[in-house]
Amino acid sequence: MNPVLRCVSGLVLLILVTCLCGLPVSYGEESASPAAPPYLLQMIRDDAVHEELGLDETAIQGVDEALAEVDPRWWVSRILPAEEQAAEVSQLTEILRGRLAEVLDEGQRERLIELERQAAGTRVLEQDDTTRQLAITPTQAQQLSDRFDTTDAEVARIQQEIADQKIDTDQASQQTTAIQQEERQALLSILSDDQRRKIGSLIGEPFDFSSVKRTYPRAPELITEDATWLDGDGVQLTDLRGKVVVVFFYAFQCINCQRNFPHYLAWQRDMADDGLVVIGIQTPETSAERDRNKVAAAKDADGFEFPVLFDQAAMNWQAWGTTMWPSTYVIDKDGFIRRWWQGEMNWKGTPGEQQMRTTIEELLAEPR
Fold it and tell me: Signal sequence: where (predicted)?
């Protein structure tokens, strides 16, 4: 993903952190972020956060079980209309919070609250408990809201200009840095000295959010009901732990899909020996793509030497929240989605294949 961050720098004594879900996306990549960023849903799955909280193996298992309850719904919520998505994320966050209350001790829960505040960056000032504890006045609250609206509008403009290829990521980064500086100065002028002093006690010791790697759900298990593996017995993602997995959805007559095929073949050729597994899922759009024999013949003609699941009833398509052909997902050694790309990766010169390849190589190099 490009390096421009939606979140902006904070105040004096406010920890400057990267909002976990607030990354803008380059052309072709889909955003998973709702109106209200799901900080808790994102951070609690990461090893660095587990270490910061001092979780033992039993607690980590409890966290995994809690995530298994919310992840499927959270993953598909990204395609909902904004208001529905925000409501779903809010509900799932509360479910997760309740489950974590059964897993974490009091000290761990308190530290997790601090991490959530840090993850919010400057937007912690909009949270109800922060507003109450800092005694932020209605006038200040309106001033903060106006300032954040200004920042959001500027960041949205930058993102659009990146998507339209009017500016590159270096230019976007420079513009975002300027916006950060403007917001920081504005917020310093809004808060009183006493309010600024109190912020530190609310957020605790600084945590390095750059160490957080996992912020997306575990990949949904592949559904074989009303679906057929074209060769052999097929695979299950749970059996591929320790491997990096690429799952791509396609339709064999789709021209944009066909333009991605050489990339999948090259990844398989170049990195299979290093632990990469490529899996194709053919979800039909046309009548020909609903014909198993034609799908199988096309697979052979295209030179696929990896497993292909014929998803004739689109059950996997729906479970993954996929909305376009092709869509490509990269899954790490523990089964978590780490990156995905919608559409043709090198569309109009976008270096999507190289970016995805780099991510795969990084994941292959990660210890487990």
Answer: none
